[in-house]
Amino acid sequence: MIYIGSLSKSWAPGLRLGYIVAPAELIAEFRALRRLMLRHPSAFIQRAFSLFLSLGHHDSQMRRIALAQRERSRAVLDALARHAPQCEVTPVVGGGSCWVRLPDGMCTSELAQQSAALGVLIEPGDVFFFSTPAPGSFLRLGFQSIPDKAIEPGIAILGQVIRSLQGRQP
Predict the structure, then answer these.
(1) Residue 12: closest CA among 66, 52, 71
(2) pTM for the whole thing?
Protein backbone atom coordinates (compact mmCIF):
# COMPACT_ATOMS: atom_id res chain seq x y z
CA MET A 1 0.00 0.00 0.00
CA ILE A 2 1.16 3.53 -0.79
CA TYR A 3 -0.14 6.72 0.82
CA ILE A 4 0.63 10.00 -0.94
CA GLY A 5 -0.29 13.42 0.40
CA SER A 6 0.48 17.06 -0.08
CA LEU A 7 0.85 20.06 2.17
CA SER A 8 0.47 22.39 -0.79
CA LYS A 9 -3.27 23.01 -0.60
CA SER A 10 -3.53 23.12 3.16
CA TRP A 11 -0.50 25.17 3.97
CA ALA A 12 2.07 26.35 1.45
CA PRO A 13 1.27 26.05 -2.28
CA GLY A 14 4.51 27.69 -3.35
CA LEU A 15 6.73 25.31 -1.39
CA ARG A 16 5.51 22.17 -3.18
CA LEU A 17 5.82 19.95 -0.13
CA GLY A 18 4.37 16.47 -0.06
CA TYR A 19 4.90 13.09 1.51
CA ILE A 20 4.75 9.41 0.71
CA VAL A 21 4.29 6.48 3.06
CA ALA A 22 5.50 3.33 1.29
CA PRO A 23 7.99 0.47 1.60
CA ALA A 24 11.61 1.68 1.89
CA GLU A 25 12.70 0.25 -1.48
CA LEU A 26 9.87 2.09 -3.23
CA ILE A 27 10.78 5.35 -1.46
CA ALA A 28 14.34 4.98 -2.78
CA GLU A 29 12.99 4.65 -6.34
CA PHE A 30 10.70 7.65 -5.90
CA ARG A 31 13.62 9.75 -4.65
CA ALA A 32 15.68 8.81 -7.69
CA LEU A 33 12.82 9.74 -10.01
CA ARG A 34 12.14 12.99 -8.17
CA ARG A 35 15.68 14.18 -8.83
CA LEU A 36 15.06 13.77 -12.56
CA MET A 37 11.75 15.61 -12.56
CA LEU A 38 11.90 18.57 -10.19
CA ARG A 39 13.93 20.50 -7.71
CA HIS A 40 13.12 19.63 -4.15
CA PRO A 41 12.55 22.22 -1.43
CA SER A 42 15.59 23.18 0.59
CA ALA A 43 16.60 20.97 3.51
CA PHE A 44 15.91 23.91 5.83
CA ILE A 45 12.28 24.17 4.68
CA GLN A 46 11.82 20.40 4.90
CA ARG A 47 13.25 20.39 8.44
CA ALA A 48 11.09 23.35 9.47
CA PHE A 49 7.95 21.59 8.23
CA SER A 50 9.00 18.38 9.93
CA LEU A 51 9.22 20.27 13.22
CA PHE A 52 5.92 22.02 12.50
CA LEU A 53 4.24 18.64 11.94
CA SER A 54 5.84 16.96 14.95
CA LEU A 55 4.59 19.72 17.25
CA GLY A 56 1.01 19.16 16.07
CA HIS A 57 0.61 22.59 14.49
CA HIS A 58 -0.54 21.18 11.16
CA ASP A 59 -3.31 19.20 12.85
CA SER A 60 -4.44 22.36 14.65
CA GLN A 61 -4.38 24.30 11.40
CA MET A 62 -6.41 21.62 9.63
CA ARG A 63 -9.04 21.73 12.39
CA ARG A 64 -9.27 25.54 12.05
CA ILE A 65 -9.58 25.26 8.27
CA ALA A 66 -12.28 22.56 8.56
CA LEU A 67 -14.26 24.69 11.03
CA ALA A 68 -14.00 27.77 8.80
CA GLN A 69 -15.10 25.74 5.77
CA ARG A 70 -18.08 24.28 7.63
CA GLU A 71 -19.14 27.79 8.67
CA ARG A 72 -18.73 29.15 5.14
CA SER A 73 -20.52 26.14 3.69
CA ARG A 74 -23.45 26.69 6.05
CA ALA A 75 -23.51 30.41 5.19
CA VAL A 76 -23.56 29.60 1.45
CA LEU A 77 -26.32 27.01 1.77
CA ASP A 78 -28.43 29.27 3.99
CA ALA A 79 -27.96 32.25 1.67
CA LEU A 80 -28.84 30.17 -1.39
CA ALA A 81 -32.01 28.94 0.35
CA ARG A 82 -32.99 32.56 1.07
CA HIS A 83 -31.94 34.28 -2.16
CA ALA A 84 -32.12 31.53 -4.80
CA PRO A 85 -34.66 28.95 -3.59
CA GLN A 86 -35.47 28.08 -7.20
CA CYS A 87 -32.02 26.48 -7.56
CA GLU A 88 -31.01 22.96 -6.58
CA VAL A 89 -27.85 22.74 -4.49
CA THR A 90 -25.73 19.64 -4.05
CA PRO A 91 -24.88 19.37 -0.37
CA VAL A 92 -21.28 20.25 0.46
CA VAL A 93 -19.25 17.34 1.79
CA GLY A 94 -15.86 18.84 2.49
CA GLY A 95 -14.13 21.12 0.05
CA GLY A 96 -14.61 24.76 -0.68
CA SER A 97 -17.27 24.76 -3.39
CA CYS A 98 -20.73 23.45 -4.15
CA TRP A 99 -22.68 22.60 -7.28
CA VAL A 100 -25.78 24.61 -8.11
CA ARG A 101 -28.33 23.69 -10.76
CA LEU A 102 -30.27 26.59 -12.20
CA PRO A 103 -33.94 26.33 -13.12
CA ASP A 104 -34.63 24.71 -16.50
CA GLY A 105 -33.90 26.92 -19.46
CA MET A 106 -31.37 29.15 -17.73
CA CYS A 107 -27.82 29.42 -19.01
CA THR A 108 -24.90 29.76 -16.61
CA SER A 109 -22.74 31.65 -19.10
CA GLU A 110 -25.25 34.52 -19.22
CA LEU A 111 -25.59 34.39 -15.44
CA ALA A 112 -21.79 34.48 -15.10
CA GLN A 113 -21.53 37.49 -17.38
CA GLN A 114 -24.25 39.51 -15.66
CA SER A 115 -23.19 38.63 -12.12
CA ALA A 116 -19.54 39.46 -12.94
CA ALA A 117 -20.66 42.94 -13.99
CA LEU A 118 -22.02 43.29 -10.44
CA GLY A 119 -18.84 41.96 -8.81
CA VAL A 120 -19.88 38.33 -8.22
CA LEU A 121 -17.87 35.66 -10.00
CA ILE A 122 -19.22 32.17 -10.62
CA GLU A 123 -17.82 29.26 -12.59
CA PRO A 124 -20.09 27.83 -15.29
CA GLY A 125 -20.11 24.08 -14.91
CA ASP A 126 -20.19 23.01 -18.55
CA VAL A 127 -16.39 22.57 -18.65
CA PHE A 128 -16.71 19.81 -16.04
CA PHE A 129 -18.94 17.60 -18.21
CA PHE A 130 -17.77 15.15 -20.86
CA SER A 131 -21.12 14.97 -22.59
CA THR A 132 -21.69 16.98 -25.74
CA PRO A 133 -23.44 19.27 -25.58
CA ALA A 134 -22.70 19.82 -21.90
CA PRO A 135 -25.62 20.84 -19.73
CA GLY A 136 -25.56 24.61 -19.43
CA SER A 137 -27.55 24.89 -16.23
CA PHE A 138 -24.89 23.94 -13.66
CA LEU A 139 -22.39 26.14 -11.91
CA ARG A 140 -19.69 25.56 -9.36
CA LEU A 141 -19.83 28.10 -6.57
CA GLY A 142 -16.50 28.45 -4.78
CA PHE A 143 -16.41 29.89 -1.28
CA GLN A 144 -13.20 28.74 0.36
CA SER A 145 -11.35 32.02 -0.11
CA ILE A 146 -14.39 34.30 0.19
CA PRO A 147 -14.55 36.29 3.44
CA ASP A 148 -17.53 35.27 5.59
CA LYS A 149 -19.04 38.75 5.48
CA ALA A 150 -19.05 38.75 1.65
CA ILE A 151 -21.01 35.50 1.22
CA GLU A 152 -24.53 36.74 2.00
CA PRO A 153 -24.31 39.94 -0.10
CA GLY A 154 -22.73 38.06 -3.00
CA ILE A 155 -25.41 35.40 -3.06
CA ALA A 156 -28.10 38.06 -2.70
CA ILE A 157 -26.75 39.64 -5.91
CA LEU A 158 -26.62 36.23 -7.59
CA GLY A 159 -30.24 35.58 -6.59
CA GLN A 160 -31.24 38.97 -7.97
CA VAL A 161 -29.61 38.20 -11.34
CA ILE A 162 -31.25 34.76 -11.43
CA ARG A 163 -34.68 36.32 -10.83
CA SER A 164 -33.99 38.91 -13.51
CA LEU A 165 -33.04 36.22 -16.03
CA GLN A 166 -36.08 34.14 -15.08
CA GLY A 167 -38.30 37.14 -15.78
CA ARG A 168 -36.97 37.25 -19.34
CA GLN A 169 -37.71 33.58 -20.06
CA PRO A 170 -40.63 32.83 -22.40
Answers:
(1) 52
(2) 0.76
Q: How far apart are CA 114 and CA 120, in angstroms?
A: 9
* Beta-bridge mates of residue 21: 3
Range of the domain at 10: 3-55
Distance of CA 119 to the CA centre of its chain: 19
Task: Please state whether the peptide bond connecting residue 133 to the residue before it is cis, i.e. omega within 30 degrees of 0.
Answer: yes
Q: Which residues contact 127 (CB under 8 A, 6 or more apart)?
A: 134
Phi, psi (rounded to 5 degrees) for 61: -60, -40
Question: What are 13-54's pLDDT values in tens digits?
Answer: 777 788 889 999 999 998 888 777 766 677 888 888 889 889
Tens digits of residue pLDDT in 115-129 = 999 999 999 988 888
Same-domain check for residues 78 and 145: yes
50 and 78 housed in the same domain = no
> For residue 117, is it within any domain?
yes
Please indicate, yes or no, whether residues 23 and 79 belong to a single structural domain of this protein: no
CA gap 157, 120 in Å, rounded:
7
Contact predicate 3/21, CB 8 Å: yes
Q: Residue 56 contacts by C-beta under 8 Å, 6 or more apart in sequence?
A: none
The enclosing H or E element of 140 equals: strand 138-142
In sequence order, what E strands does the chain have?
3-6, 18-21, 88-89, 97-101, 123-124, 138-142
